[in-house]
Amino acid sequence: MLILSKLLPLLVLPPGICLLLAIAGVLLKRRVLVWSSIGLLWMLSLPVVGDALMRSIEAPYHRIPIERVQKAEAIVVLSGMVSQIDGAPLGEFGDAVDRFEGGIDLYKAGKAPLLVFTRGQMPWDTDSVPEGELLAKRARLRGVPSGRIRLTSKAANTAGEALAVATALGVSKTKPKRIILVTSAFHMQRSLMLFKAASFEVEPYPVDFQATDLKRRTTLLDFIPNADGMSASSTALREMIGRAVYRFGMRFMMPTK
Fold first, then answer.
1. What are the DSSP calls for 94-123, one per residue?
2. pLDDT of 217 over the 90 cut
3. What whole-number distance in Å separates Cα of residue 63 and Cα of residue 104?
4. Tell me, what's the pLDDT at 6?
5. What pLDDT is stored for residue 18 in this prediction?
6. Secondary-structure class of domain 66-207 per CATH
7. Closest to 73 in 3D by CA, of 157, 199, 185
8. Would you tell me the crossing angle of helices 185-197 and 227-253 to the nearest 10 degrees?
9. For residues 149-166, b (16+ Cβ closer than 10 Å) or e, as one string?
10. Is the model's pLDDT at 182 over the cut of 90?
11. Residue 65: exposed, middle, or buried by beta-carbon count in 10 A (0-12, 13-18, 19+)?
């Protein structure tokens, strides 16, 4: 089921949908489908389009000054920021490193007594170390005491992370807890749905904003297709699909505690 959830969206996202349209056009001898695939691929590769889609899913979130964050019982940092390669025992950070930095900053500002990392790991990736374990080691190097760090059981997606954190913190409908949730801005709305369904009271702390600064002027380069534009479009559309799927199937994916 997990494999299907990862593979099926690829068929309705660029470039998968573009490839399917092109194949259908060739098999059915319909040029309009081939040209539609080319046009869609071109449009979704435009930086201005990718940025607009990303901005739409990051709204209404914005970076919150730490002094305005209310205190909670725990800070929860979602996985998805570390690549494990030879020669880097603690892994290498990717674009979402702000999740880790945000969690550390919140803890050092005294916003919660516990810092929770999720043991993110795919079932088929058994040779890797669960991400949360690497993040916990990094947190200790940054001065966070071991007794203030919590690790969840292994989780392969956001729904699994929500349930794993609930188990680690002893949360249920009769025993809710307030947390500060740290994840990328584009991923926050879906994460909020899942953690609230898992009986948490959640204060969002969005980081890792992808949309271009509104103060930056649009230039001719924003209308020239490139890989960054396609990446932004794909990420935004994948998140839109994920939100729709979770809304539709929430009652089935989040068991009653």
1. -GGGHHHHHHHHHHHTTS-S-EEEEEE--T
2. no
3. 15
4. 60
5. 81
6. alpha beta
7. 199
8. 10
9. bbbbebbbbbbbbbbbbb
10. yes
11. exposed
Quick one: tokens of 151? 């690790």
Dig out the tokens for 133 from the structure: 């374990």
Query: Which range in 124-128, 145-149, 218-222, 223-227 is most confidently predicted, on average pLDDT?
Result: 145-149
- Report how far Cα 201 is from the mean position of its chain's Cα atoms: 19
The DSSP element (H or E) to which 193 belongs, if any, is: helix 185-197
Backbone dihedral angles phi then psi of residue 34, each to the nearest 5 degrees: -65, -45
Pair 71, 110: CB distance under 8 Å: yes
**Which run of H or E residues covers position 92?**
strand 92-93
% pLDDT > 90, the chain: 67
What residue ranges do the domains of the chain occupy?
2-59+227-253, 66-207
Give the CA count within 13 Å in the CB-facing half-sphere of 109.
17
Q: Across the strands, what pairs with 155?
A: 120
Give the Cα-Cα-Cα angle 35, 240, 199 (nearest 5 degrees).
165
CA distance 224 to 239: 24
* Residue 213 φ/ψ, nearest 5 degrees: -55, 130
Residue type, 76: V
The SS3 call for residue 204 is strand
